[in-house]
């Protein structure tokens, strides 16, 4: 059984079927990328998976738990974390305080039996560990909103990691990045994949081909095909979908 499975998801907006019986699975430690031209329904699918939208049909399951009836925040508790295309950081606070808040939000009852001073120390450790993990330890005391774009995206990833996800949903993590920052983000995702499964929605095809074990191509709300990078590169139907369109996915 796969770690994660979305099964036959359907979402209609009036007469438009934005998600048309989409099934997608992610195995433990797998990076599964989702690509598709503009308007293919990627954002809608991500919202259905993370719980910002409710499907008209279909189910979302993680590690044997049916997440479909749960709101976003409960899905996070069950192990499904999402990074946002629009970052979710507090721009006026330091990296440290952003991470402390996230660590605290996800600490649940873990510090309940500790003396307050020990609980505070454990939170500080956790926040610093998250900064180290994404390579932001040198920026720890800087104001988040003043960081370069690439560093802000890393912080966004660190905030999602605070929940200790089993599945990390990365929604266009390379958006707006230059080649150097993109390369760093690829390195970071390579590190993370040893600890969690990743569903990656990304327009940067270089990054997708480097990272993905499996790629699914979404067109008009349906999965056109799924396969390895080599399968997808050699697929005539995929090529024709992108031909003459704004090829950035
Ligand atoms: N809330 C909504 N109400 C009505 N139609 C919507 C809504 N959200 C999305 N759609 C429509 O559903 C289709 C899929 O949109 P979606 O944003 O999911 O595509 P996408 O693949 O994420 O595109 P992009 O890469 O441009 O963000 C589009 O035709 C869009 O206009």
UniProtKB/TrEMBL annotation:
Domain called ABC transporter: residue spans: 4-245
UniProt keyword annotations, A-Z: ATP-binding, Cell membrane, Membrane, Nucleotide-binding, Transport
GO molecular function: ATP binding
Cross-referenced SMART domains: AAA (SM00382)
PROSITE patterns assigned to the protein according to its UniProt record, in alphabetical order: ABC_TRANSPORTER_2
CDD domains per UniProt: ABC_Mj1267_LivG_branched
Domain of life: Bacteria
Entry-linked SUPFAM superfamilies: P-loop containing nucleoside triphosphate hydrolases
InterPro entries per UniProt: AAA+_ATPase (IPR003593), ABC_AA/LPS_Transport (IPR051120), ABC_transporter-like_ATP-bd (IPR003439), P-loop_NTPase (IPR027417)
Name listed for the protein in its UniProt record: ABC transporter ATP-binding protein
The species this protein was found in: Pigmentiphaga daeguensis
């Amino acid at each position: 059984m796969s770690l994660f499975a979305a099964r036959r998801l359907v979402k209609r907006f009036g007469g438009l079927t934005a998600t048309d019986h989409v099934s997608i699975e992610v195995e433990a430690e797998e990076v599964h990328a989702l690509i598709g031209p503009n308007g293919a329904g990627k954002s809608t699918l991500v919202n259905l998976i993370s719980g910002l939208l409710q499907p008209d049909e279909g189910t979302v399951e993680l590690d044997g738990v049916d997440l479909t009836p749960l709101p976003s925040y409960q899905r996070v508790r069950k192990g499904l974390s999402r990074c946002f295309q629009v970052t979710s950081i507090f721009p006026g606070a330091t990296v440290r305080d952003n991470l402390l808040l996230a660590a605290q939000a996800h600490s649940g009852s873990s510090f309940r039996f500790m003396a307050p001073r020990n609980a505070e120390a454990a939170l500080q450790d956790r926040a610093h560990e998250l900064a180290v993990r994404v390579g932001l330890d040198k920026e720890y005391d800087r104001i988040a909103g003043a960081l370069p774009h690439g560093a802000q995206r890393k912080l966004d990833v660190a905030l999602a990691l605070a929940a200790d996800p089993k599945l990390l949903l990365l929604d266009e993590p390379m958006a707006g990045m230059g080649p150097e920052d993109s390369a760093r983000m690829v390195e970071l995702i390579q590190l993370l994949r040893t600890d969690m499964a990743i569903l990656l929605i990304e327009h940067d095809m270089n990054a997708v081909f480097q990272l993905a074990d499996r790629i699914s191509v979404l067109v008009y709300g349906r999965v056109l095909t799924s396969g390895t990078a080599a399968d997808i590169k050699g697929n005539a139907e995929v090529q024709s979908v992108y031909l003459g369109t704004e090829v950035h996915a």
